[in-house]
Every structure is written in structure tokens, then in C-alpha cells.
Specification:
This is Trm112p-like protein. InterPro entries: Trm112-like. It comes from Mucilaginibacter straminoryzae. It holds the Pfam family Trm112p. By secondary structure, the protein is of the alpha+beta class. It has one domain. It has a 4-stranded antiparallel sheet with strand order 1-2-3-4. A hairpin with a 5-residue loop joins strand 1 and strand 2. The longest helix is centred in the C-terminal third of the chain and has 15 residues. It starts with a helix and ends in a 10-residue tail after the last helix. Bound molecules: zinc ion. Zinc ion (ZN) binds next to loops.
Length: about 90
């Protein structure tokens, strides 16, 4: 996903601007893996294979997202995090 496109994304929950943490980019600098986080509601949206996972809470499958986060903890040394607040 292109950086300019990511900059236009907002939180699906509260429409707040998102913070981007880039973990992996391809040769064209597109973000392949990363984390979008909302400073307002504290939700975290992973970018997996260049695609941001930005479904509303009721459609999120944290059981599928969590293994990716666990791998990133090992690979990139990211802090432990909750995908959803609370
Ligand atoms: Zn939010």
C-alpha cells in the first residue's frame, strides 16, 4: 500500500487520523507490513501483505490477526499490544 494512500485513511470507529508504524516496505517504498493505530480510541489496525485490516469491531477476527502480531513481536521487536481497546 502506498504511503500517500495510507495518509488518507482514518479510524473506521471514530474517523480520527491514524498513526503509522512501518515494519516492512517493498522496493517502491509501499508498506507491506505495518501498524495503524488510533490515538483516540486506541484501536490498532495491522497492515498485512500491503492490505490494512480495517473492519469494524464486529467483523474483526482477532484470532486471525493475533498470530501476525506475535510474529512481528519476534521479527521486529514491537511492543506487546491490544488490537482492540479494553
Ligand atoms: Zn479510533
Amino acid at each position: 500500500m502506498k504511503l500517500q494512500t495510507i495518509a488518507k485513511l482514518c479510524c473506521p470507529f471514530d474517523k480520527h487520523d491514524l498513526k503509522l508504524k512501518i515494519l516492512a516496505q517493498d522496493l517502491e517504498k509501499n508498506v507491506q507490513e505495518g501498524l495503524l493505530s488510533c490515538p483516540n480510541c486506541l484501536r490498532v489496525y495491522p497492515i498485512v501483505y500491503g492490505v490494512p485490516i480495517m473492519a469494524p469491531d464486529e467483523y474483526r477476527q482477532t484470532a486471525l490477526e493475533q498470530p501476525v502480531i506475535d510474529r512481528w513481536k519476534l521479527e521486529y521487536g514491537i511492543e506487546p499490544l491490544n488490537l482492540l481497546p479494553g
